[in-house]
Design brief:
342 residues, Spore Coat Polysaccharide Biosynthesis Protein SpsA, Chain A, 15% strand, single chain, elongated, transmembrane, membrane, Glycosyltransferase, Glyco_trans_2-like, alpha/beta, Nucleotide-diphossugar_trans
Length: 342
Amino acid sequence: MTNALTPHSISVVVPVYRGADTLAALVAEIQPLAEGFTTPGGRAARVGEVILVHDNGPDASDLVMRELEGLYPFVRAIWLSRNFGQHAATLAGIASSGEEWVATIDEDGQYDPGQLGIMLDVALNQRASLVYAQPTNEAPHSAFRNVTSRGSKRVVDLLSGSRDARRYHSFRLMLGETGRSVAAYAGHGVYLDVALGWVAGRIATAPIELRDEGDRPSGYNLRRLLSHFWRLVLTSGTRGLRVVSVAGAIIAAAGVITAIVLIVRHIMGGSWPQGWASLIVTELVIGGVILLFLGVIAEYVGVAVNQAMGRPPYLIISDPARGPLGREEQPTPTAEDEEHPK
C-alpha cells in the first residue's frame, strides 16, 4: 500500500563533462519519476528537480543542457567558470539543490535512475543518512581498471584505518541537509566521499545492477585516474604521514644496526667491506626514500595551503551564452542607418 504521507522529494545532481550523447536519454528516464513513483517498499516519492552541472567538457554538452532545460520544467542547468573535476561539479550541484533528499548519478547511463526507489527504501529502513550503490555485477570497464580500482580503495582503507572507501560510488543518495552542509564547508581538493564520511551518521549500501556505457569513451585517462586516487589518499586523513614517520624510523634503525654490525666485525678482526658501487647504491636508495617522503609531506602541506588561501573548490556563474561572452557583436550604426532604420 502506498504511503499516504507527503512524498519524499529528491534532487538529482548530474555532473556533466562529456554528456552530449547521453544526457537526453538520462533525463527522459527520469521524467516519469518527476511525476511521482512508488518505491518497492510502498513509499511515495518524486524527483523534484534535476540539476545538470556543466563542467566545461570538450563536447557540445552545453547545447544539450540548454535544450533540456527548455523542454523539461524540472531540469535546471548550473554553469561552472571552468573545468573543476567531477567531485567539485557534484558539490556545486548539491549546494544548489533544494529537496529533502539528494541523489548523484553519472551522465553516461551506467546507472538506472529507476533504482532510486531501492536506495530510498534502504535509507529509510536502516535510518541511514547516506546510501551508496553496491553493484551486483562487474563494472563494464576493462579488467585492469576494475582491479586497480579495488586495489586503490584497499590502499586508502589501509591508510585511513577504515573500510569506507570500498563502498564509494558516484551513484549516491543522501539527506539534503547533510549534502548541502558538506558542500558549504568542503575545501579545495577534498574528496567528496571522504567529506561526507566526516558528518554522515549511518552509511548503508543498496544492491544496484550496472548497465553498459555503450560506445561512450571514458572521461578518465590514466593520469586523471591517478590524480583521482592521490586526492583520495591525501584527504583520507593524516595516517599517510604516520606511515612516513614509521618508515623513517625503520630505516634509521636499520642504519644503526648496520653500524653496530660493522663495528663489531672490525673489533673482531674483520675487514671493512670494500666497493664504492655498493656505497653509492645505498646512498641513492636512502636519498630517494628521503625525497619521496619529503614529497608526501609537501603534498599534505600543499592541500593545507590551498585551503588556508581560500581557493574555492568550484565557482558557479550564469549561463555564458546569455552573458557578455555569448553576446554577438553588433555593427556600430552609421548616420545613414539612423536616418533609414530597418
